[in-house]
C-alpha cells in the first residue's frame, strides 16, 4: 500500500510539472525554435526545472529532518508549488 501511495504521489507531481514553464517558452522563442524542436526543447527544459525543484525540496526536507511519509508529502507539495509558480509566471 505504501508503494502505491508513493507512486501516486510521484505521478501527481510529474503531471503538475508538465505545466509549461514560462522561462522555457521564452528561451524557445528566443532560439526561434518551431515544431518538434520547440516541443522537445520545452519538454527537456521543463523536466530539468522539475528535477531542480525536486532537489531543492529534498534538501529542505532533509534540513527539516523529515523522513518517511512526512518527507514524501512535503516534497510532493513543495515540487507542486514550485512548478505551479513557474507555470503561473507564464
Q: What can you tell me about this protein's structure?
A:
The protein has one domain (2-88). It is built from 4 helices and no strands. The longest helix has 29 residues, at 35-63. It has 90 residues and is mainly alpha-helical.
Q: Summed up, what is this model?
A:
With 90 residues, this protein is mainly α. The chain has helices at residues 2-17, 22-30, 35-63, 68-88.
Helix-strand layout with pairing:
Elements: H1 2-17, H2 22-30, H3 35-63, H4 68-88
Helix pairs in contact: 1-4, 2-3, 3-4
Report the average pLDDT across residues: 80
- Count, helices: 4
Q: What level of helicity do the residues show?
A: over 70%
Strand content: under 5%
Helix and strand sequence: HHHH
Distance between the termini: 37 Å
Main sheet summary: none
Q: Give a count of the beta strands, DSSP E runs of length 2 or more.
A: 0
Rg calculated over all Cα atoms: 15 Å
Principal-axis shape:
elongated
- List segments where confidence is low: pLDDT < 50 over at least 5 consecutive residues: 4-10, 12-18
Number of domains: 1
Question: Which structural category do the helix and sheet elements fall into?
Answer: mainly alpha
Amino acid at each position: 500500500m505504501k508503494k502505491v501511495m508513493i507512486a501516486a504521489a510521484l505521478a501527481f507531481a510529474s503531471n503538475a510539472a508538465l505545466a509549461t514553464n514560462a522561462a522555457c517558452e521564452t528561451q524557445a522563442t528566443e532560439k526561434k525554435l518551431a515544431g518538434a524542436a520547440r516541443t522537445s526543447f520545452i519538454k527537456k527544459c521543463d523536466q530539468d526545472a522539475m528535477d531542480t525543484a525536486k532537489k531543492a525540496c529534498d534538501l529542505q526536507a532533509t534540513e527539516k529532518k523529515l523522513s518517511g511519509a512526512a518527507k514524501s508529502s512535503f516534497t510532493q507539495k513543495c515540487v507542486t508549488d514550485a512548478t505551479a509558480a513557474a507555470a503561473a509566471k507564464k
